[in-house]
Each structure stands twice: as C-alpha cells, then as structure tokens.
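As a warm-up, study this chain.
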Amino acid sequence: MNTFFDFIRKYNYFFVFLLLEAVSFTLLFNFNSYQGSVWFTAANSAVAEVNGVYESGVSFVRLREVNKDLVHRNVLLQQQNDRLRKALQEAGHHPSETEVLLREQLGTLSLISATVVSNSSERANNYLVIDKGTAEGVTPEMGVVGGGGVVGIVYLTGPHHSLVIPITNRKSSLSCRVRGQSYFGSLQWEGKDLRLAHLDDIPRYAKVNKGEIVETSGYSAVFPPGLFVGRVVGVGNSSDGQSYKLNVRLGTDFATIRDVEVIATPYKVEIDSLKAKAAERDAAAAASGNLPQ
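Now compare it with the structure written out below.
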C-alpha cells in the first residue's frame, strides 16, 4: 500500500497533467461543434473497427459449427426435393396396359414392395440388389416383377437386402410361352442388348408372329402363369434346326429399373415339400431295388 502512495506522490504532477488534459478536451469537444463532430466521428469509426475485428474473430471460431449446420440443411433440402420429385412423377404417371394387367394378375398374391439400390447391368452375369430381406419376409427363389413385367428371381437374402438374379443374366432360364398358345420354351439372355432375349424350343408347327406377347408359363413355383415378359420381334431357327428360336424384346428396362415387387408365392412351400417327398421316396425305392413303375 505504501508503495502505491509513494508512486502517486512521485508522479502526481503527471497525473494532474493528464486530468487537466482530459478536462480541456472535454470542454473543447462539448462547447465547440466542429471539434465535437470530428471527435465523435473518429470515436465511432474506431469503435466500429474494433467491433468488426471482434465479430470477425467470433465468426471464424464458429465457422465449423456454421458449416455443419449448412451441410445438415443441404441434406434436408435434397431429401425434400427428392420426395417432391417422386410425388410429381407419381402424380403425372399413367399406368400402362401392361402395368394394369400385372396388378390384376398379382392381386390375389402377397407382394413385398422394394427398391433397387444396386444395379449391375454391364456384365454377362448381371445382378440387382433390393432393399428388402428376411426381416421383411423375402426368401430365396421368390419371383420379382416390375412395371414392365418379369424382372428375375431372388438368389441370396440378408436381414434387410437381397440379391436378385435378373433375366438379363446368362445363368437365368425362365419357362415362358406365347400368349394364347400351349407351347412353351426357355427364355435366355445372350449377353448383349439388355432389352433382347431369346425363347428356344418352340415347335416348328407353332404359328408365331411378330408382336405376339411372351408370358410366364406357370411351370414353376416362382411365377404364376400369364405374367408379361416381352414381345416377339423376330422368328428364327434354333441351332439344331428342329425348333424355332424367338427373339423377344423384354418389357423391363434394366438400365433404369428402380421400383419392384417381390412375389411371396403362397403355394411355393407346398410344391417344394411335395418335390422333396417325391425325391425321398425315389431314393428309398432305389436303395431297396423297388423302383416305381
């Protein structure tokens, strides 16, 4: 404390000088309009500069938080935009005759709506991945259809995703027939154009013309009969010359496919059970030497 008072006593003339200077400036600026205006202008400018530096510093410190908020808002806007675009597409979409017919044919079956989340369409053995799995009731060997007709068959399943083998896979073989006729054959993809496949083993005495509809035959537990597959665009001979080979333009556009339906076939389990029992009986009869006549 004594040191403080000693410092005041030692420099008291300096402090008196500062006090008189302050009083002089106060009187000068308060009672002289020009000097007062200059002072206040300079003071406001200085305060504004200090405030600007402070706000810049605060903004820089909060930049990361602001950036996160902007990213979050951008994602929300993108999601809203996607929902609005889908709503507009659905509002302006008029179902084709094929879509209407498919809905009528599948009306008695249990369907699981799904979306294609991965699409391999540039290989010989293409595949699709959909966003539904065992948790939603999807199991292997279920049929998959879309707005353009048959898509493929479920091959592998996970809890929430499934791998689908489309008819544009070289390993795919689908039993089909020409609508209105009892002749059926095997539909296969040749590995070139995603919209073209061929139907083999159609008898040469069958009358088939361009433009006729190719549909599922129903000779499997996967697809019910009568589902649209495509249209005949050409009639040729098979490699052995004993039957016709029909060129078929597929109804499904695999380059743009997105929304599909998985067919929960109600009688598939029963058919598989009957086949398994028949195989067991044949095996037992073969082991005992009593083959069925």
